[in-house]
Specification:
The complex is a heterodimer of chains A (about 350) and B (about 280). Helices cover about 70% and strands about 5% of the residues of chain A. Chain A contains twelve helices and three strands. The N and C termini of chain A lie far apart (about 60 Å). In chain B, about 35% of the residues lie in helices and about 25% in strands. In chain B, α4 (about 145-160) crosses α6 (about 180-195). Classes of the chains: A mainly alpha (about 350), B alpha/beta (about 280).
Amino acid sequence: MVAASSNSRRSFVQTFMFWTFRLATYFVLACATYIFLNIAIKGSRTVFTNHAPFINVKFLTEPPQTLYVFDYQGKKMELSDREFRKWQETHKEPVDATSIAYSAGGIWPCIVGTALLVFGSMIVALVIGISAAIYLSEYSRDTRFIRFIRIAILNLAGVPSIVFGLFGFGLFVIFFGWNVSLLAGWFTLGLMILPAIIIASEESLRAVPKGLREGSLALGATSWQTIRKNVLPYAMPGILTSSILGIARVAGETAPIMFTAAYAMRDEMPWQVTKWTDFFFQGVMALPYHIYVVSSKIPQNEYTERVQYGTALVFLIVVMLIALASIVLRERQRRRLSW
Amino acid sequence: MVSVMEPPQTVRPQTLPEPLGSAANQTEKLQVMIDVREVDFTYGDNKVLHSISLQMAARAVTAFIGPSGCGKTTLLRCINRMNDLVDGSRISRGAIHLDGIDINSPGLDVVDLRRRVGMVFQKSNPFPKSIYENIAYGLRVAGVKKRSLIDEAVEKSLRSAALWDEVKDRLETNAYGLSGGQQQRLCIARALAVEPEVVLMDEPCSALDPIATAKIEELIQALKTQYTIVIVTHNMQQAGRISDFTAFFYLGKLIEFGPTVKIFTNPGEKQTEDYITGRFG
């Protein structure tokens, strides 16, 4: 009898725990699905159209403009800044128009800006990060100083992004005098994901079998030749995997760029510079910062909501595309160097 | 692939093979290639080699035998300074001379030393590249660029390692497609490609089946005419079959060193006899 009752109790606990774990998993899935679908459905009203070419080309290729909304002869007019001025030339009568910032036109400069920020900061982070990881895993000996550096790197990974933003503002923007610029943004974002890149790269380097290093050294290769030809190539897929996560973080962060690289509005595109050096010292618009500005800096209404969701959807797609590109790159490298 | 092959360790003196060449009995006449003089070796505070002295003859096979942890692999890895990679390890006393040169002298280029002293590891470690690139690696890192030179060296060393006929039609395929025994012979070929004077082998057959082992032993016999070979082995029959000289190590000390025939038929020390006859180890 005793055995039977404890048996049924045990099986109840077993079932209960199983369902707890299962529901927790489903809960996460449900949240993610809700967020994604919400953005996708509301955003596609802005990004896609119901007539050919089915994509809102204007939204993807124009800079943001102010939207003017007014009633004219009983009809509700929604005109962008440029259209409104043209309309005023032909219609002399004054109208009582409401202006809504950033709600007409598109987000093309933001897409370009985010792409530039991601590209540059990944280069900064990968060059410094891989170099540091090579030093830590291949050259350094296990001294107290090196252990201190490791702890510092781990701590750096936990620093909030706004702190990186202020640090970048203080060092790059003010002290180095780079002003609000791409360069300052690259270094701020690069430093932010540096710890993650170093830790992941070091792990990938350590995962390369010791036998490959010894085999190479025993053939009279120098340490550097061994690393370049026989360690780094096999660690690269792992390093790229970690950089995919880095890309998503870099693209999405607002706090580090709001003081260092992002403009709320800029008329020129990044390539419209007089000197090529100016390219690095210009601020850019960026998708996450645009979402932040549109949803917090101007009065909310149905028109701003369109831009917010449209931008969010485009942003998700851009991040996905960049991540996809690095996955393809990684798989190609894996195939070439499988062991 | 990783099935460790350990044949019975009892070897009776009467079953030993014939003496391998008359050279084995004439130590004095042979040129000394590697001269180990009173070497102590420590890992941190832990002394693992105690005053080892022995001389290894050129163009002969010297075998290191002894139970696990007796220091034979450590001594082998001292000869091409592979132990440099191990933090906190060093030769605390004594010196090793290669052809008259102190290999630990500060002015010596370790890269140059490793080019002269090749090594084959216990676990075959081909690079995850093509067979061709595996052999070419040592030449490429040495700065050889000329394709015809590399082609020639690849064929020559694959032939020396008795692998050419098996792989000549698939030089561009990945080395990981080879069998365990072929991979180990590829590693030997790779070591030979840089034309070393000495080849160190650290239990090269421990992960191979008897047929692959026989092939490698045959190969060692053939290579002896050109190279000085030092081999660590757990397999005493193997030491008896292929070596000219045998060194028996126990707990970090060199117990006995001499011509293989003598060690196996008439050992001077009780411990050697006990180990060879399988009473311990």
